[in-house]
Design brief:
The protein contains three helices and eight strands; from the N terminus they run E-H-E-E-E-H-E-H-E-E-E. It is α+β, with helices and mostly antiparallel strands. It has a single domain, classed as 2,3-Dihydroxybiphenyl 1,2-Dioxygenase, domain 1, CATH 3.10.180.10. The chain binds cobalt (II) ion. Cobalt (II) ion binds next to strand 1 and strand 5.
Length: about 140
């Protein structure tokens, strides 16, 4: 198995506080963590759900990947993130399998995790993130 489990589902939103309120009031999901992730051009909120999270993403500007996503497709499901305990090995394996990488090397994501994205062109249209959490 390449991946351990689903780490989170990323959701692009225009109104972060409105989305936090919606998930809190309607689904009883609590804000666990909030962080501006400059490397991804977003302000992100993690909501607790079982062992995983929903990651709400508000673009810092229109000229960011999430900003462009919303302009093109509107707010909604943005990516799925799988957890691995060795992102270098997993990245090597998916590269060897011929998948197209957005990130050739891991970069620092939310909560100091190491992350890398695979291009949706090679994953059936689903933007896919690999996450190695800080242990
Ligand atoms: Co993510």
């Amino acid at each position: 198995m390449l991946f351990g489990r689903i780490d989170h589902i990323g959701v692009a939103v225009e109104d972060l506080d409105g989305a936090v309120k919606l998930y809190g009031e309607r689904f009883d999901m609590r804000e666990q963590h909030r962080e501006t992730v400059e490397s991804q051009g977003v302000e992100a909120v993690l909501l607790e759900i079982g062992e995983g999270h929903v990651e709400l993403l508000r673009p810092l500007s229109e000229d960011t990947p999430v900003g462009k996503f919303i302009a093109k497709r509107g707010a909604g499901l943005h990516h799925v993130a799988y957890q691995t305990d060795d992102i270098d090995r997993t990245l090597g394996a998916v590269r060897e399998a011929g998948l197209e990488l957005i990130d050739q090397e891991p970069r620092i994501g939310i909560r100091g995790s190491r992350v890398a994205f695979l291009h949706p062109r090679s994953t059936g249209g689903v933007l896919t993130e690999l996450v190695e959490p800080v242990h």
